[in-house]
Amino acid sequence: MTRYRTHMCGDLRKEHVGEEVKLAGWVHRKRDHGHLLFIDLRDTKGITQVFVNAESAVFKLAEALRYESVISVTGRVVTRSKETENNKLSTGYIEVAAEKIEILSQAEQLPMQVNTDKAFPEDTRLKYRYLDLRRKKLHENIKLRSKVINSIRRRMVDQGFTEFQTPILTATSPEGARDYLVPSRCHPGQFYALPQAPQQFKQLLMVSGFDKYFQIAPCFRDEDARADRSPGEFYQLDFEMSFVTQEDVFEAIEPVIHGIFEEFSKDKKITAPSFPRIPYEESMLKYGSDKPDLRNPLIIQDVTSIFKGSGFGLFSKAIAEKNSVVRAIPALGAANKPRSFYDKLNDWAREEGAGGLGYIIFAAEGAKGPIAKVLEPEKLEALKNQLNLKEGDAVFFTCAKEGFATKLAGKVRERVGNLLELIEKDAFRFCWVIDYPMFEIDEDTGKIDFSHNPFSMPQGGLEALETKDPLDIKAYQYDIVCNGIELSSGAIRNHLPEVMYKAFGIAGYSNKDVEDRFGGLLSAFKYGAPPHGGSAPGIDRIVMLLANEPNIREVIAFPMNQKAQDLLMQAPAPVVDDARLKELHIRLDLPIKDKLIEEGPVAKTRRI
Q1: How many CA atoms lie within 13 A of 538 on its CB side?
Q2: For residues 303 and 281, what is the distance between their CA atoms, to the nearest angstrom?
Q3: What are 522-567's pLDDT values in tens digits?
Q4: Which ranges in 301-401 belong to alpha helices (H)?
């Protein structure tokens, strides 16, 4: 293969016995048995056991090797004795008798161990990410990511899509998050923005007549970290199609998503196309979320009418005086749980900002609990019938303004489903959430704003924009959700200038604002634009699910920490050369705080 090796460390089998081979890799483990020294040699393909006899000329050299030193070993492949075979390794039936060892790089004392699954602090893992990436699980995750991307590319090309690359330095766009801005040296006081998504460019490619576009697109958003969202940057399968309806987009991407999960999911159950379509309003009612986890069998129902004017004064008064709603979350099989189960859920609900969590237990001897004591028998029966409950089940209630009651009910559904172990195991359950509202009220300003994607086509077109209450208008917008995680957001686009002007006008933009901010796209639409639409499944989240990782940083080679810092490359960092800032026409106006800052060899105080 090369001067350093004839085989990879995961390649050798019984058929290689007797051959002289040369391997190269890292010292994974060592075991000194006195007369024999064993070395587990590791590379990206696997591990081969190497042994050195005490009388060998290279024994002392091998004895002095530190873990993670890089070596090249020349030796002969021999069969392991029956009692030393290791069926957990692909190379576990052979070993290499070392005749020559060359040290290619001697490792220093390690700040973290590589040959263990032991947990290390996140800051340590990120600072020494190159060591962390050598560890088996993370190493395999990154290789899985590469395989997934290769498979996606093949599947998209097979469907007739053409791969493009769109600009990284571009203009700001209202995608719902903060932009990363890049100052222009040549144009003082002006800035580029890193793309939150290639939204306008992929639409322009449709106007250019390319018909089917895709790319594995880097996207940049200055937003806070979450378990399923990395701060700073992420990658998505960005695609767009011309002359299509919403269903055409679904039919194009469903086989790709299903195929990826079928290829890499290790025998898990997967929703087959066509994925269920759930309208946004139905999703919020039944699941308390627009990211429903369909592995959870619990269905939320509105029971406001049952409690209206009922003997349970707390709820009936809230309905009458505060316009509250009541949501019921069934708890299948929970009647046998101890009182502490209900008390702990009640305490948890208070931590979530609720006054508490009402409940009724349908036991063999009858309905039990504080609500059951005062609620009329016919209403208890109505609840049982509507929720399809039986003896042995229980039900929880949230009562509040609709928005809060809905979100809390969704959290209760998730928590109860997990506590009762009702979540379907070893399954990927997909759905589309469709019919998102086009507009919403901004809670901070009280003004109408876009709820999802500003470039979406409203259902009903221009007529709907001119005749309907904006909050009643639905858009051709849709998300792919898997196991409660949003994988993709997309839409049929607004390709008509007059509709674009009107939609942005409702959101408070003047025609001039639209022309100033989206002039390139708007101008293109005036010269013949096809109906078009697409979506953008997140690569990071797909791999996170396939790798069964709870945190997205486990499938990204060099992620930032939760504070959007790269501890390995020490970014972001101050610009220590004021001439560089002057060249970019930037003067800093930093928060007032006395702090001692190290700048080269001289420490000085600056107010920052």
Answers
A1: 25
A2: 16
A3: 999 999 999 999 999 999 999 999 999 999 999 999 999 999 999 9
A4: 304-307, 313-322, 339-351, 370-374, 377-386
